[in-house]
Amino acid sequence: MFDRFFTSPVAATIFVITIITSIRAFSDANLKYQFIFNPYRMVREKKWQMLVTHGLIHGSWWHLGFNMMAFFYFAFALERILGHWQFVVLYLLSLIAGSIPALVRHKDDSYYNALGASGAISAVVLSVILFIPEVGISLIFLPAIPGWLFALLYLGFSFVASMRNWGNIGHDAHLFGAIAGIVITVLLRPDVATSFMQWMSIKLG
User: What does pTM read for this prediction?
Assistant: First the structure.
């Protein structure tokens, strides 16, 4: 199991740093304040690093555990499939892309804050599904479903939840991070779009 830390060094580094930084931020209010995504302060104080640093902290142990579990099962595999620098590009750009809608919506709202790597992790999961459409994905105690079906349900739910602003969850980040993951994967590996469509046509045909 631990051999993935050596074969996927970029994912391993992000994984460890995110866990350490998140745990520190649980008890260090200043660190959390500096890393959290606050569009109001970011625009006025030119703290553009918040587009990335917010992905290194989480709001609770549950939030951290859920995201890191998904990261562990998908990110290490994706780096081996996609490549090291390609994984960096996908992860960082998807993390940023997932924050753009909130930046536009809340740039004048000093009370809006967001944190967590969900946008980037959504991108990672959707990217893996492009390469392995039949990969089984299970949520908590629910039975596993095929990756391609999960992707459709996830995108659909995130779209509706974003439009209706359901709960205190960054559905925008999930949706736009996932879309960015798909687009960036296809740009990096154009062949994956053809193979995915061929697989789907056989599966559904």
Answer: 0.92
